[in-house]
Amino acid sequence: MKKTYLITGCAGFIGTNFVYYMLKKHEDILLVNLDKLTYAGNLENLKDVEKDPRHVFVQGDICDKELVKNLIDQYDPDYVINFAAESHVDRSIYNPEVFVATNVMGTVNLLQRCKEAWYDAEKHIWKEGKKFLQVSTDEVYGALGAEGYFMESTPLNPHSPYSASKTSADNFVKAFHDTYGMPINITRCSNNYGPYQFPEKLIPLMINNARHHKNLPVYGDGMQVRDWLYVEDHCKAIDMVSASGKSGEIYNVGGHNEKPNIFIIKTIISELHERLKDEGISETLIQHVTDRLGHDRRYGIDPSKIKADLGWYPETPFEKGIILTIDWYLTHEEWMNRITSGDYQKYYDTMYQNR
Fold it and tell me: Domain 3-194+230-255+298-315: which CATH class?
């Protein structure tokens, strides 16, 4: 039977990759794609599928009650997958209220509209085959020491306004399951990388700056450790959880690719230098700047549960994924040039010029 998905945040980094992944993998499918098209949502990302009848794009805000209700009534989605979020930690420190509005209130609006459409309050039953999937982050767990990993049972301990807003959203999703029996899953992923990522994030920022011989801003000593997950592997996990995840369960999705930020940056420099034969791309571009407030030192995910329950595993080692990513940005120079103009550049200057 044809499955219908309402995908929020479809024009952002992970949402875009998920749309392409699902259309490539599934023939009998309808994707109703909702995005507000803020700074991080770029409709150009989806131009290659704009004529695909399995893809319907709607511009709008997940906080818009009437819009979300109408979409659910019109398309009767089997799955609602919430990618929509303000996601950059620096922005959350600069303006936390926006993160509460989108990440918390927007998620609650989606949950409420789904409950109204799917739940028979008199009979206390839910429509068959419905599910709400919240795409979250390992940052809700806080920070790790030198050893150990985040597990689904790890207490939530967010340290930034961004991670606090995602923690609150996760708690609301879980509360709708515990209170009403709503069929839900939550996935918590490690740092994603790959095509279409907005260039305020580490990897595309460093690729773009290095190509133009700009300074490469490194927070503190650059030894913050992250577990890097290639975005297509993440999309595969979300597809599997939405289809087969046990209702109410949380699944950690990690790449088994723990690397310090400074290693990532030096790898990008080396690969770009080799590909472009450009002597101006060197480690002399690295500029250490004042560390981010509340900067977590290490994240690391234990994905044993999703492997055991659903058979998922990360297929892309970092050594392969970083090459795929660099090559994509090198062949999409016009995309990068357009997205880094105007308001983005003003934001970049605000964040880094006085550090």
Answer: alpha beta
